[in-house]
Amino acid sequence: MEALLTRADQRLAKTPAWKTFLVVFVPLLAVYLLTMDRANLEQGVDAVAAALPAWRLTQFGDLDLSQFADLPWVIDVDGRFLSNRPPGVSWVATPLYWLFGRQSFAGSVPSMLPATATAAALSAGAVGILHLALRRVAAPGPAVAAAVVFGLGTSTWSVSANELWSHGPAQLFLALGLLALAGNRFLAAGVAHGAALLIRPITAVIAAVTGVVYGWLTRSWRPVILGGLGAVAGLAVLMTYNRLVLNTWSPVPASYGETFVERARNQSVLGYLGDIFGMFLHPRYSVFVFSPFLLFTVPGLRAGWRRAPMWVKASALGGIVYMLIHLRLNRFWGGAEFNYRYPLEMLTVLAPLLYLSWRAWFDRASSGWRRAFAYSVVISVVVQFVAIWIEFTNPTVT
């Protein structure tokens, strides 16, 4: 493994960042497009409900989904049938529906292919951008290798790139925010975070915590003020959309916001701790079971934290607080049959710290443990590949 990283680094050491971006992006995009879910109603209800407004907007110029009124996540708002998905996840799919899917229908719903191709492209873009952020803490070769492992060894492949969940688009904008923060472009980071919360509103936690922590670490108000302005702009767009379309100023539609509040009120301490444990080690839904290579970042966390630049620390704390709040509001297993999806945003903003932690461990590890890590990478990729091809039909949709 070390020899492979060394040879890759030697080849890529003088390669411009945009070229190494393509080295990551193009192969991952090809893999994602080849393996993405081409089904329609067999896709998750979230993905279908996110795709329908994009199709309707390009076909008729409105958001009326009355012809799909019986589908989950299509809600009645004062006699109008609308999707309750955040608007950003539908907006990102609009271009491909405009180009390729305006007249396409497959069965009782429009073709999901433009939406799924959007998910594949944005997920590959997210990993490519993440590699650019990793180049701030690693040489080009290891940054490329780490990004590819992330792209194939986490459920970014089997979830984000497989259907139009909110995770892939959110990961893209969080990665952009991470890269902007690494370059002290605080307003750009805030705008990227604002775009992410249009897709997945709870990522506002990442924006808030990251900005405040970075401001505290640098003893400067600039990250807080400029980053906050960008994020608040995204929140204002979301709230305005919800008011105009869903008749509520709330960032989350009433159709599912109550369940979050009720869970936060009623969940016991043991239940909460069980969710945290389950996120990491549950045999069907956890990060370490489906991406075991991440286990090898744990021994070096302390050393990685000491080595980490302030932007890495701030982003990591933002991701951790985000996940802790998320687990208080929602179930850790994400309604899936297997695998994990909720931790994807956290893993994206944690990636630079995880790389530094892995590097600190790897530099001291014996050859046997290094081989074990290599095997864990292979297992992670195989597990994610298998997860894609195990068909899951949601009985509430078919």
Ordered list of secondary-structure elements with their pairings:
Elements: H1 2-12, H2 17-35, H3 45-60, E1 74-77, E2 80-83, H4 87-91, H5 94-101, E3 105-106, E4 109-110, H6 113-134, H7 140-153, H8 155-160, H9 167-182, H10 186-199, H11 204-218, H12 222-246, H13 254-266, H14 269-281, H15 287-290, H16 301-307, H17 310-329, H18 344-364, H19 367-389
Antiparallel strand pairs: 1-2, 3-4
Helix pairs in contact: 1-7, 2-6, 2-7, 3-5, 5-6, 6-7, 6-9, 9-10, 9-18, 10-11, 10-12, 11-12, 11-17, 16-18, 17-18
Instruction: Output the helix-strand order.
Output: HHHEEHHEEHHHHHHHHHHHHHH
Number of strands: 4
Q: Give the strand order of the largest sheet, numbering strands 1, 2, ... along the chain.
A: 1-2
Mean pLDDT: 92
- Cα distance spanning the termini: 46 Å
Tally of individual domains:
1
Low-confidence stretches: 392-398
Helix content: 55-70%
Individual helix count: 19
- Rg from Cα: 21 Å
Shape: globular
As a percent range, the share of strand residues is under 5%
Structure classification: mainly alpha
Largest β sheet strand count, sense and barrel closure? 2 strands, antiparallel
